[in-house]
Design a protein that fits this description.
By secondary structure, the chain is mainly beta. 0% of the residues lie in helices and 50% in strands.
């Protein structure tokens, strides 16, 4: 089994920054892709960013140029640096692992392993 634990969520004002972390343990392989998803009440879970084991990353349009995904392989940890936060970024942020995925990736159904989520709230 793979365990994923997110941290770093908080309440911030619009324009602020946060860094989320996701630590992987258990039967985790560095060959897995790791990704961030988010979900707001009443909305479907949506992909935010993904990073594969070779370091290649992709972002959805609504966070491009504001968020940066990174990964520390020695610590089995993934990060999401979130800058210029907007109220519409308010959501529960989830860490996911599986793959790798070099094509379609933003479908939550592709990922077998999930964390419990960390809440990000951005006020105007």
């Amino acid at each position: 089994q793979v365990q994923l634990v997110e941290s770093g969520g908080a309440s911030v004002q619009a324009g602020g920054s946060l860094r989320l972390s996701c630590v992987a343990s258990g039967s985790f392989y560095n060959s897995y892709a790791m990704a961030w998803f988010r979900q707001s009440p009443g909305k479907e879970r949506e992909g935010v960013a993904i990073i594969n084991s070779d370091g290649s990353s992709r972002y959805t349009d609504f966070v491009k140029d504001r968020f940066i995904i990174s990964r520390d392989y020695s610590k089995n940890t993934m990060y999401l640096q979130m800058n210029s936060l907007k109220p519409e970024d308010t959501a529960m942020y989830y860490c996911a692992a599986d793959g790798p995925f070099y094509g379609t990736w933003a479908d939550p159904g592709l990922f077998a392993y999930w964390g419990q989520g960390t809440q990000v709230t951005v006020s105007s």
